[in-house]
């Protein structure tokens, strides 16, 4: 590849993934954009405007030697990158398709036209931010912002009073919400003339079923799957406890999910790029329900695919950014038959117990022991305190303080390794014991990958 690739809002998983790719391949990168979750970087939110950023980067591109742009950042990066690629004539996802996926109410409207069997009942919350909750709504109902990321302010409410209390925001909270939405709103008005404002909440009929994530790529007129990841929740909550790969979902259900994704993506003009479709599947009713579409790589899962299948999603994203075949990207020899992304959370938001209930971040000695015993681990820490911590409890319903990735030979081996690693960190192991002990999460070992360039394809992928 000639020239440098511009990476937008390149933090956490993406910073690690592209840094590794640069070390392994010599690919050159520049990064622009601020970190929404750290101060003072997030102070840039005050004046952020997508079009202004795109115009500035376009003026700098030739002098900086940029020949492509990529971003896996949901809130701002994916759409900004699409706008810049479109302006520069670089390969990229059509901006209107990115906006269509991210405008959750508009996406539901499109889904109703092309895949009504995979939709749930939905409507805009008929009141402005801060207004009293309207009467006449059916409960329980799932409320969420029309434009958001990271499951912010998404919750099942059971009464009008609970809805009213959940949608009460202080002056600073309202300012943050509006500043998070307004950059998208200005662009979406131009790209999606039929869509209504994103400055609102929406309601959906709750779905009680197991959640999954379909990852894939649209390239050369084909929508092809990367795989399906199983989402495991903390018992009695809608908060993710683990993401396990490979999925235990049956091949015919995976194929159905791929068909639904293909129809939706075609309808919104998503002709190029990586995507992630979150969905429910209820085995008792054989009902598959789309949760939402994310018009970019699911960065948290990239390491899982690398461990189990030997495919590098960051190499594929880089190939797409430069107009090359993502399926020709180099592969590595897999290191595990099963892998997990384990999420450590605290749910106790009682102020009097906060300091006692939140495990401390690991010490240098603990981290050294973790590296010694689990050289393959990937650990992310999210230390928070004060207003930032309180806002997590209100907006997310929990505080995610760490994520740990590990691989294993099978489910039992992986559980043992995760138990031991959690003990080193002195964090509670993220498993609902009854599930694994009952065999519900057992997974048989996958075949050995004799040739890392041509791993065996699951049967549901062969027809693509």
Put the structure in a nutshell.
This protein has helices spanning 13-25, 50-64, 77-88, 95-102, 104-114, 160-166, 171-191, 251-267, 299-309, 313-321, 354-357, 364-373, 386-396, 411-425, 433-437, 459-462, and strands at 4-8, 29-32, 66-70, 122-124, 141-145, 155-157, 201-204, 210-219, 222-233, 240-245, 273-282, 287-294, 338-346, 378-381, 399-408. By secondary structure, it is α+β, with helices and mostly antiparallel strands.
Could you characterize what this model shows?
The protein has 464 residues and is of the alpha+beta class. It folds into three domains: 4-90, Rossmann fold (3-Layer(aba) Sandwich), CATH 3.40.50; 121-204; 210-462, D-amino Acid Aminotransferase, Chain A, domain 1. It has helices spanning 13-25, 50-64, 77-88, 95-102, 104-114, 160-166, 171-191, 251-267, 299-309, 313-321, 354-357, 364-373, 386-396, 411-425, 433-437, 459-462, and strands at residues 4-8, 29-32, 66-70, 122-124, 141-145, 155-157, 201-204, 210-219, 222-233, 240-245, 273-282, 287-294, 338-346, 378-381, 399-408. The strands form three sheets. It has an eight-stranded antiparallel β-sheet with strand order 12-11-8-9-10-13-15-14, sandwiched between helices. Helix 2 (50-64) packs across helix 3 and helix 4 packs across helix 7 (171-191).
Write the topology of this structure.
Blueprint: E1 4-8, H1 13-25, E2 29-32, H2 50-64, E3 66-70, H3 77-88, H4 95-102, H5 104-114, E4 122-124, E5 141-145, E6 155-157, H6 160-166, H7 171-191, E7 201-204, E8 210-219, E9 222-233, E10 240-245, H8 251-267, E11 273-282, E12 287-294, H9 299-309, H10 313-321, E13 338-346, H11 354-357, H12 364-373, E14 378-381, H13 386-396, E15 399-408, H14 411-425, H15 433-437, H16 459-462
Parallel strand pairs: 1-2, 1-3
Antiparallel strand pairs: 4-7, 5-6, 5-7, 8-9, 8-11, 9-10, 10-13, 11-12, 13-15, 14-15
């Amino acid at each position: 590849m000639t020239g440098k690739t511009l990476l937008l809002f390149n933090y956490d998983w993406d910073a690690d993934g592209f840094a590794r790719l640069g070390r392994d391949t010599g690919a050159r990168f520049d990064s622009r954009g601020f970190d929404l979750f750290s101060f003072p970087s997030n102070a840039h939110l005050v004046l952020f405007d997508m079009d202004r950023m795109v115009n500035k980067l376009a003026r700098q591109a030739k002098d900086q030697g940029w020949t492509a742009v990529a971003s896996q950042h949901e809130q701002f990066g994916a759409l900004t990158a699409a706008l810049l690629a479109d302006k520069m004539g670089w390969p990229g996802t059509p901006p209107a398709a990115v906006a269509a996926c991210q405008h959750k109410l508009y996406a539901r409207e499109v889904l109703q036209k092309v895949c009504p069997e995979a939709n749930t009942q939905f409507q805009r919350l008929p009141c402005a931010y801060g207004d009293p909750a309207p009467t006449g709504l059916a409960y329980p109902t799932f409320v969420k912002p029309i434009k958001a990321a990271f499951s912010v302010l998404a919750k099942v409410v059971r009464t009008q009073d609970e809805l009213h209390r959940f949608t009460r925001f202080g002056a600073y909270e309202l300012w943050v919400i509006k500043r998070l939405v307004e950059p998208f709103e200005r662009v979406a008005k131009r790209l999606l003339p039929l869509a209504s404002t994103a400055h609102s909440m929406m309601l959906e009929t709750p779905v009680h079923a197991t959640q999954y994530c379909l990852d894939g790529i649209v390239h050369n007129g084909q929508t092809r799957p990367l795989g399906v990841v199983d989402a495991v929740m903390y018992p009695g909550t809608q908060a993710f406890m683990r993401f396990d790969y490979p999925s235990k979902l049956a091949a015919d259900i995976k194929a159905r999910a791929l068909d639904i994704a293909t129809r939706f993506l075609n309808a919104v003009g998503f002709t190029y790029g990586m995507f992630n479709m979150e969905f429910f599947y209820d085995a008792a009713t054989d009902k598959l329900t789309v949760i939402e579409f994310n018009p970019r790589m699911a960065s948290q899962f990239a390491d899982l695919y690398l461990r189990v299948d030997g495919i590098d999603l960051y190499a594929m994203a880089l190939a797409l950014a430069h107009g090359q075949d993502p399926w020709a990207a180099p592969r590595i020899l897999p290191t595990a038959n099963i892998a997990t992304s384990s999420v450590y959370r605290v749910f106790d938001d009682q102020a009097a117990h906060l300091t006692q209930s939140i495990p401390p971040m690991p010490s240098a000695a603990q981290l050294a022991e973790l590296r010694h015993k689990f050289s393959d681990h990937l650990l992310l820490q999210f230390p928070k305190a004060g207003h930032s911590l309180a806002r997590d409890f209100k907006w997310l319903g929990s505080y995610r303080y760490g994520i740990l990735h590990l691989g294993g030979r099978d489910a039992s081996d992986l559980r043992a390794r995760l138990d031991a690693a959690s003990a080193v960190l002195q964090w509670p192991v993220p498993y609902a014991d009854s599930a694994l002990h009952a065999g519900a999460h057992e997974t048989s070992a996958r075949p050995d990958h004799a040739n890392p360039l041509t791993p065996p394809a699951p049967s549901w992928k062969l027809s693509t």
